[in-house]
Amino acid sequence: MATIPAPRTWTVGELLSASKLNIDLRNAINFLLAPPLAQLKRGASQSIPNAVATPVTLTEAADTDNGFDLAAPSRYVAKTAGWFDCDLNFSWRSVGTDLRQANITVNGVGRFGIDSIHLPRVSTSNVVFLAVNDYVEFSAYQASGAAQDLRDVTLTYCWKSV
Fold first, then answer.
1. What's the pTM?
2. Of 37, 72, 113, 157, which is least packed with CB atoms within 10 Å of its CB?
């Protein structure tokens, strides 16, 4: 779990030490150089049923804050509180003129960044605030009259200073 460094207020006459510099300056710079980040991708082949928002099964490509859990492969759990930029992209195996959606929810409620288009590639993005142990979940929806297979799925989830 990354720790967001707290800014220090120096006082007149306070002596500077290597320890204080490491805690107050080095740690803040290290956090900014390597904030929490996850890159997730499609796990196994997945068929999305008609007219049902279905959690997308993901697998970890990179995860610097250990928020991805194979037991809940459509979710990412915040281990560091803050604003997170979530970008979800996927494409479908078949092309149709039906409704396609990419959904992002927080703690199972609300849908953020819905992108409904009639194309084989769908993407959505949103910046959300998460407390420690809040989670974002990613799902797909399509209304073609029959199940459709997902092709490429990528998700980028990163801490953002807003």
1. 0.80
2. 72
- Rg of the chain over Cα atoms, rounded to whole angstroms, equals 20
Residues of the chain with pLDDT under 50: 162
Cα–Cα distance, 78 to 66 (Å, whole number): 9
Task: Output the pLDDT for position 55.
Answer: 92
- Cα dihedral across residues 141, 142, 145, 150: positive or negative: negative
Closest CA to 67 of 39, 30, 102: 39
Q: What does the buried/exposed string (b/e) look like for 20-57 if buried means 16 or more CB atoms within 10 Å of the residue's CB?
A: eeeebeeeeeebeeebbbbebebeeebebeeeeebbbb
CA–CA distances in Å: residue 15 to residues 12, 18, 23: 9, 10, 14
DSSP 17-72: -HHHHIIIIIHHHHHHHS--EEEEEE-S--EEPTT--EEPPEEEEEESS--B-TTS
Per-residue pLDDT reduced to its tens digit, 25-38: 888 888 888 888 89
Q: How far apart are CA 149 and CA 92, in angstroms?
A: 6
